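Comment thread on ticket #2218

A.B. wrote:
> Attaching the input chain for the structure job we discussed in standup.
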Amino acid sequence: MPDASTPSGAPQAGLRTPRLLLRPWRPDDLAPFAELNADPEVTAHFPAPLDRAASDALAARVAGLIEEQGWGLWAVEVVATGAFVGFTGLSRPAFEASFTPAVEVGWRLARSAWGHGYATEAATAALDFAFDGLGLTEVVSFTAADNRRSVAVMERLGMTHDPRGTFDHPRLPADDPLRRHVLYRVTAERWRDGRRGAREG
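C.D. wrote:
> Ran it. Output below, let me know if you need it in another format.
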């Protein structure tokens, strides 16, 4: 079975949901992306807000990975308005932990996009692609232990908390209150069973 080292396979145009387009990045995404990365509420569970240079560098990295492998952290656009609201997609954690190598589903959306179910909707499309497009057997997600908003999304997605996977993020200082992270998992079998149940229900 394919695993976290599986190569490309996503359509370059990205993924579509009823309300959202997960697509490759464009130059006009950089300004709104910098704005959300500078918002202290959006970045409350990250080490610090990003300045424009750091935000642009992050966008370049994730856009480059999509070009290289055909999938990644896509830019998220609201179809009805054409507005860029952040990113959602798949990535490989760039650090070592008990659960790596792995593929993670993640998201970061502007505060104006909160409360609409966009993170769950976009992540659902990403997970459909992870299992049906890439043939992965499992996807993980993780966040700072007190990030209840992201944990709620993971639980809405049907991911399961793995208490044994709780870890201290190796890229954060030992005294950083965000260092302790929780880990959630979902297998392909569990995902497909949940999606089938939702359709039949």
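A.B. wrote:
> Thanks. Noting for the ticket: The domain at 15-200 is CATH 3.40.630.30 (Aminopeptidase).
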